[in-house]
Amino acid sequence: MKKKRKISTLLAVLLLIVGLGVLLYPSLSDLYYRWEAEQEIAQYNQVAEATQEDYSDLWAAAEEYNRKLAQGNAFSVAATAEEEAKIEQFLNPLGNGMMGYIDIPKINVHLPIYQGIEEQALQAGVGFWPGTSLPTGGPSTHCVLTAHNGLVRAKMFTDLDQLVEGDTFSLSILDRVLTYEVDQILVTEPDEVDALQIVEGQDYVTLYTCTPYGVNTHRLLVRGHRIETPENVNLGNGAVDIIRTQSGMTVLITLAVVGLLILLFRIWRIFRARKKKQQT
């Protein structure tokens, strides 16, 4: 009888620990992912600031690519693989495929942007869709950036459906910040690309993800048009965000550990009290 009680108590403790782990995993995993992303962004900013490089040649090459793209065939999914090999030389100052980063203040998104939409890039951050305009801004450009929705380990574009017309987001690329205001939100079939085409004279960026959450049968397209960037935008805010994210993660982990210890202590006291009662 005593042995059965001990086993029952141990099972209860294990179930509580597993339950607590399952409950905390999404939040802890997302915080850790954000911390990793902030490190990448901080490194990008540090390199850009330390080198004090003149990026005019990089911008000129990317803008020339965009001009040729606007004069060519319409965007299609089939063109993605063909264009992917061409973009490696553009806007890649660190040599690791990171083009810059995106900020979406309303939904607290601050993520690196990588070349391509292969899974490796999408697991690390936001992917630039080859075959669309490089993120340089300018007339007759339409850049498409895509990220996952509903990953267990990171939120990424999970909250993209919370944006409404008039919200803003910005792209930090090399030494420039490009700001966009949301002007169109669409839900389309996966193979529909009409809304991703270049429009003559317009400067667009579309944020692209799967929808609805957990089902992913359609695609959510949030388009923004270029507006003037506010003067108070700080290119070097990565370090501050890292500190904030690290602090939040430290607090959450500390609370989880303390809570688990308190729980284990209470269970131990109950077990000890029962044992004493049985001995008397």
TrEMBL record:
Transmembrane keyword on record: yes
Matches recorded under InterPro entries: Sortase (IPR005754), Sortase_C (IPR042002), Sortase_dom-sf (IPR023365)
Keyword Electron transport: no
UniProt entry keywords in alphabetical sequence: Hydrolase, Membrane, Transmembrane, Transmembrane helix
Transmembrane stretches, start-end: 249-268
Pfam families the record matches: Sortase
Gene3D superfamilies: Sortase (2.40.260.10)
Designated name of the protein: Class C sortase
Organism (species): Anaeromassilibacillus senegalensis
Lineage, broadest ranks: Bacteria, Bacillati, Bacillota, Clostridia, Eubacteriales
